[in-house]
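Internal tracking record. Fields below are filled automatically when a chain is submitted to the structure queue. Please do not edit lines marked as system-generated. If the sequence contains nonstandard residues, flag them in the REMARKS field before resubmitting.
Queue: standard
Priority: normal
Entity type: single polypeptide chain
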Amino acid sequence: MHLSRRELIALSATAAFARSFNLKLGVTDWNLKQTGRVEALALAKRIGFAGVQVSLGRTPINDHLPLTDRQRQLNYMSESQKLDFPIVGTCLDILHVNYLKNDKLGQQWVREGIAATAALGVEVMLLPFFGKGAIEERAEQDAVADILNEIGPEAEKAKVILGIENTISAVDNLHILERAKSKAVRVYYDTGNSFGKGFDVYREIRTLSAKRICQIHLKDNLNYLGDGQIDFTKIMRSIAEAGFKQWAVLETETPSNSIEGDMKRNLTYLQRVLKETPPA
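SYSTEM-GENERATED OUTPUT FOLLOWS
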């Protein structure tokens, strides 16, 4: 059977699009209700995820982050090796308490977090900016960018990426990255956060591109994926068009209070979307 030129082009585009969907799907330990617990790895694997993002801890132990403790690090690394299941990122959740924009302790935690993340053999550390720690104003964004400019070389040396997650626009995030002037500083993009603020998430993912996004949180706030207002077929197409091929991590809620059931439902839905989404 001979195919027409148009059919050959269509087949080629479909194949290229499928290759661009080389996404790996992970999950957060806190949405598994296993914050800071090594048991999150086995649970995430049992549900069917490919990796897990772990919390560094927001309650200090002896004035240090819990996961700076070497024995805790070894426990995580041993479990990861035993299960053949990767830790795909960390979260510096103590920044919900000590805000990086105006608290010197925040800077200390970033430095400790870099060391802990590197010790775990993990590449990406999420820096959250929410609630009273949000960076909605330009002066706040500049303050954070200047701090990251100072700390950036330490992260680069440790081979750790600092992923900023927030509620501001792609344009404002680009401003921070340009001012920080560090290849270690990137955006940790979150579909639910941005959509909830009224931003065009599909366009923003393409605007930031794979060059500036280190990882992505997938969620539609309190909804099951596919049941809310976010079009995840369009999300996946935007991710592919942005050239992003790293980790997408589910930060989804459990409406029925069945952690395994609800997480499996969301994961299965995304796997189907990845399989069925046609090329743009």
